[in-house]
Amino acid sequence: MLLKTTKNKWILIKTIAIVLALMPLIYTTYKIGGTDKNSIVIFENTSSIISLPILIFYFILYTSMAAFGIYWVIMQVKKVISLKTEKAKTELMLLKSQVNPHFFFNMLNNLYGLVGTDAKKAQDLILKLSDMMRYSIYEGEKDTVSLEEEVEYLKNYIELHKMRYRKEIDIKFINDISENHKVMPLLFIILLENAFKHGVENLRENAYVHINLKSENNQIFFDIENNFDPTIETEHRGIGLNNLKRRLELVYPKKHTLSFTKTADVYKAQLNINVL
Fold first, then answer.
1. What is the helix (H) or strand (E) element at residue 207, kind and residue range?
2. Residue 73 class from Cβ within 10 Å (0-12 exposed, 13-18 middle, 19+ buried)?
């Protein structure tokens, strides 16, 4: 019984509060609807005791609606930006997951052949491959890594290829890192992979890959040059480069340039990034 009485009191209090809150609207409606004039002055012959609270009510109502409208617009814009950001992050994660799978597959095939013929070389290759896989999996998930870590990753890749091939390859890797910037992981590996895939693998002799990496004044300059066999139809394109281009667009929009130069038997790629 007591519970029911308390509930009824709350209903009555709410009803009174709603009526009081609506009084200015009720009064205004009465003034407008209770006259046959073409136009009226709402507060004509009305005391300030009544008119002032009504004016305050309309002021609060207007400012509240305006504030709510602005808040709603801001929240909608934030939702759109958040959705775009989440979409970009999801796409970037997917693109990262596509980097290097064919390389690891090829290296495992090489390992299979080495296990029975050169166990020591196979062991060394396994260690290097393990380091690369660890970096690709764990560091590759991060938003950024140090430039020096990326350089070490590239060096491991080069060493693996030196162990893999049974031919002389002129490989030069000059790096001058005056500023150890944070960069997107797995940034340069696609360009290095292409140099080996479309150049070294198809040449029996005199194959070369020359790499230069420099960082200074918040800029990173990376260029890589390799020769290739012009008699073999090959294009430095495909999933790998499209992957790199899209990742650069997502992470360094309007802060990078990627260009390619091709002559009779030499291919060169240049990537410049503004890290600010």
1. strand 207-216
2. exposed
- 183 domain-assigned: yes
Inside any domain, residue 1: no
55 lies in the same domain as 136: no
pLDDT (tens, 9 = 90+) of the chain, 276 residues, equals 555 566 677 777 767 766 666 666 666 666 655 555 555 455 566 666 666 676 677 677 667 777 877 877 787 777 666 656 555 665 556 566 566 666 677 677 777 777 778 888 788 888 888 888 888 888 888 889 999 999 999 998 898 888 777 788 899 999 999 888 999 888 899 899 889 888 888 888 899 999 999 999 899 999 999 999 888 766 555 677 888 888 898 889 999 999 999 998 999 999 999 987
**Paired tokens of 3:** 């519970």
| Residue 239 neighbours by CB under 8 Å, 6+ apart | 98
Contact present, 175 and 151 (Cβ < 8 Å):
yes
Structural domain boundaries, residue 62: 13-31+46-97
Split into its structural domains, the chain has a count of 2
pTM of the model: 0.65
CB proximity list for 268: less than 8 A, separation 6 or greater: 223, 224, 225, 260, 261, 262
154 and 192 share a domain?
yes
- Do residues 190 and 229 share a domain? yes
Domain match, 196 and 168 both: yes
